[in-house]
Design a protein that fits this description.
Distance between the termini: 55 Å
Shape: elongated
Mean pLDDT: 90
Number of helices: 5
Helix content: 40-55%
Order of helices and strands: HHEEHEEHH
Strand content: 5-15%
Structural class: mainly alpha
Number of domains: 1
Length: about 170
């Protein structure tokens, strides 16, 4: 029974490795699409883990683009344009940004946005929570930490789409 369990785990690892290789090949060809039919219950988490571990976190040297936090367990690979909103850009490095848990939540809720000059903007809505506002205000107007490779920097069109969605 134990060997069957281990054999099954080995098969899962092989499937994950094959998916990882496939993702890397697709990204190199600038094919960032993951259709809904590909992103099944079984593969969705794998795609998102590969996006986080192989694409976004390394692009940002494993630190939050806004706060500089480097504790990996507190970092998220945020999609600028949400996964659900654009199948064609799901694996695009330019659609990913490394954010700490707090920065990610604020970004998702529109309390923090990033403008086309890669500067952090704090929403007036953040003032509703004085403690939160005090915490994030220090980043207002500061330029985010960007990936070294220009082709991996957030696409300005994605940042604009995000601003439009959350405002």
């Amino acid at each position: 029974m134990l060997s069957k369990g281990l054999g099954n785990q080995q098969q899962v690892d092989t499937e994950t490795k094959e998916l990882r290789v496939n993702v890397h090949k697709r990204v190199m060809r600038r094919n960032h699409e993951v259709s809904n039919s590909e992103a099944t219950v079984k593969t969705l988490v794998k795609y998102q883990r590969i996006f986080r571990e192989d694409i976004v976190l390394p692009n940002y040297d494993y630190q939050c683009a806004i706060t500089g936090i480097k504790t990996t367990s507190l970092l998220r690979a945020a999609h600028i344009v949400r996964w659900a909103d654009n199948q064609k850009e799901r694996l695009n490095p330019q659609n990913g940004i490394c954010l700490s848990v707090l920065a990610d939540a604020c970004f998702e809720k529109g309390l923090i946005t990033i403008d086309s000059n890669y500067k952090v903007r704090i929403s007036d809505n953040a003032k509703k929570d004085p403690a939160l506002y005090k915490e994030i205000l220090q980043y207002d107007g500061s330029k985010i930490n960007l990936p070294k490779l220009k082709e991996n920097r957030p696409a300005k069109r994605f940042l604009l789409e995000h601003q439009t969605r959350v405002s």
